[in-house]
Design a protein that fits this description.
By secondary structure, this protein is of the alpha/beta class. The chain has a single domain, classed as Spore Coat Polysaccharide Biosynthesis Protein SpsA, Chain A (Alpha-Beta Complex). Helix content is about 35%, strand content about 25%. The strands form two sheets. Strands 1, 4, 5, 6, 7, 8, 9 and 10 form an eight-stranded mixed beta sheet that branches.
Amino acid sequence: MLPIVVLAGGRSSRFGSEKALAELCGRKLIDIVYEKAVEVSDDVYIAVSKNAPKTKEYCIKKGYNTIETFGSYFKDVKFLLDELGAFISVACDIPFLESDDILDIEKAYWRINKSLVGVLPLEKVKYWRNNCIYKNMIIVGLNVVSEHEDEFFFLKNDLLAVNINTKEDLIFAEEIFKKLKRKT
């Protein structure tokens, strides 16, 4: 199993506070995502930085395995690749992540031996807001980072399109959880 890194050291500038600590249906985003990652691996890290000191403190108190990064996505990815080799990158703001999503992208990596960018076809997604869209695909915060060239990987879980960038996104996600009667 590749190491899994949950990215939680960003500035959260659009959110207005440390996004990883935001609560969705009474649970912190970081806990929701971390628990899905540890369902499939013991080799899980939370990437923290000076940008999110409360997140770092919280993760250390919880006993999560943290790794200090710069708090800048591209610098962090390069640093993590140098430190860990190929790894699975998971954004802390995708609360509908399932352990099978992680397993699927890792299996694909071993099969084709390329870096994988998790995407969803826009036409198959029911719920989404404010996502990065490229050629009618929603870019999702689940990737395999390696030294190899990139390839898009089509994920099955269309709820991965729900990511939290703003407080409005958090309210939107909570409405979906309630509508689908899901538990965090």
